[in-house]
Amino acid sequence: MPHVSRVPNRSRACWVWQVLVLLILLGGSAVLPLRPAAAQSDEWAELSTTYFTILYAPDETGRLEAEAYAGFVDQIYDEIATLFEYRAAAPLMLRLFPSFESYQAVNPLARDIPGIVAHADFRKRELAVVLPRTEQQSPDEIQNNIRHELTHIFAADLSNNQLNTGFQEGIAQYVEIPTGEYTRKLELIQQALASNRVISWSDLQERERIYNEPQIGYPQSLSIVTFLIENYGFRAFRTFIEETGRSTGYRAALQTVYRTSPSELEAQWQAWLPSFVDGTYVTRPAIGFDLNYPIRLLEQGRYAEAQSELEATIEWLRTTPQQDTLQEAEALLIRSRAGQQATQIALSARTALASGEYEQALNLIQQARQAFAAIGDTRQEQVLEVYAARATRGLRANQQLAAASSQMESFRFWDARDAAERAAQEYARLGDTQRAEQALALRDSLSDWQRLAGGGLVVLGVLSLLASLWGRWLLNDQEVW
C-alpha cells in the first residue's frame, strides 16, 4: 500500500463532513463557493493518471502524496465504473489540499464547519481531499474517501442530478469497503429502533432532516439502499437512479422500477431492518454486483473492453468473499481473450485477402470460424462467408491465370488469351489491381503472339503459294522443252 496521510476520530467529524458533502453535491444554500481553478493554477502542480488530473502542492511532500493517490484512484474508478456499468467523463479533477488553511482559502465557509475530510463537486467534476484530516485514517478509509465522493459524481451523472439526499448518501456509503465505522452505524440504527426514531422514506427528500440528525439519517439511508440492493439486486437500483432523472419524483421512480408501491417497499424495509442490525451487513460481500456489463460487452463482440473490465473486476473480487462470482469472472476473462484471438485471426484473413493471398486467406477464415464457434459467437459468420466467397473467386482467377500460362507454353494462344482475359476480369472485380495487371499483361503478350502467329501463317501461306507457282512454272518449262 503506498504511503498516504491518515484521519482522526471520525465519529462526530465524519458526520459533520458528510453533511457538507451533501450540501455541496445537491446545491443547497450552504454550498461552499469554490474559487475558480484558473485563479489557483499557479499554486498547484499536476500529475495525470488515466482518469484523473491530480493537483497538489508543488513541493516534495505534495508530490509524494499525489503519487500515493495515483497508485489507487484509477483502480477505484474502474471498480465504480464496473459496478455502475457507466464511465464518468474523464479526466476528473482530484485536488489534494496540503492544509486546512489552504482549503479554507478556497472555501471560506469551511471555517465554521469542523471535521471536513473530502468533498465532491459534480458540476466542476472535482474531488477534493484535505490531507491533514486523513492522517489517522486506515488505508481502507483513505480509499473510501475517494469511493464515496466518486460515487456521488457517478450517481449525479446517471440521475441528471435528481437523486435525492438520502439515496445519494446511501449509495455513496454502500460502495465503501466495510471498516470499523460500520459497527458504529449499526449501533446507531439499533438505538433509533429502540427509541422509535426510525425515519420515513419521505424524509430522504428533506435535506435538513438528514443534516440536522446525521447520526440517524446517514446510517438509515445506508440501510435503505442496502435493503433495495440485497433484496432486488444492484441492477434494479442502478435503473432506479436513472429513472429518477426522468420521473416526477423518487416515489414514481420506485414504482416504475420495482413495480411495488413505495409504501409497500418501506414496510418491507421496516420488517427487514432488525435483521440488518443483527450483524447481517457486517458479513455481507463488500459490493453485491453482477457481471452483466462485461457479459454484454462480450455479447457485442467488444472483447478488448470486456477484458479490461474483467481484469479490474477480478483484481477487486480477489479481495472479497465472492468466490463464485470470481470464478465466473475468470471464465469470462478467458472467453474475452479467446474472442480477441478469433478477431485477430479474422483480421489476418482480411489482410491476406487484401494482399491477394487467397489460399492463406481461406485457411485463416476456417481458423477464425472455428475460434468464434468455440466461444459461441455467430455474429461474424456472415462477414467470414463474404471473405470466403472472395477468396474462392481469387483462387479461381489464380487457376485461370495459371492455365493461361500453361496453354501459352503449348502454343494454344487463343485458349490462353481467353483464360487470361477471364482472370483479369475476376481480379478487377475483386479489386486486386496488381494481379489484374499481370493477367492483362499476359493477355496482351498473347495477343502479340497471336499477331505474330497470324503473320507467320500469312507468310507461310504466301511462301506456299509462291512455291506452288514456282513448281508449276518449272513443270511447264519442262513440258515445252
TL;DR of this structure?
With 481 residues, the chain is mostly helical. 68% of the residues lie in helices and 5% in strands.
Count of discrete domains: 3
Total strands: 5
Whole-angstrom Rg = 38 Å
CATH-scheme architecture of the largest domain? 3-Layer(aba) Sandwich
What does the largest sheet look like?
5 strands, mixed
Give me the secondary-structure category: mainly alpha
Helix content: 55-70%
User: Which strand-content bin applies to the residues?
Assistant: under 5%
Mean of residue pLDDT values: 78
Uncertain stretches of 5 or more adjacent residues = 1-41, 281-287
Strand order of the largest sheet: 1-2-3-5-4
Q: Categorize the overall geometry.
A: elongated
First CA to last CA: what distance? Answer: 128 Å
Please count the helical segments. 20
- Pattern of helices and strands: HHEEHHEHEEHHHHHHHHHHHHHHH
CATH class term of the largest domain: Alpha Beta
What can you tell me about this protein's structure?
With 481 residues, the chain is mainly alpha-helical. The protein has three domains: 1-158, 3-Layer(aba) Sandwich (Glutaredoxin), CATH 3.40.30; 160-290, no CATH class; 296-372, no CATH class. It is 68% helix and 5% strand. A hairpin with a 3-residue loop joins strand 1 and strand 2 (52-56). It is elongated, with a radius of gyration of 38 Å. The termini are far apart.
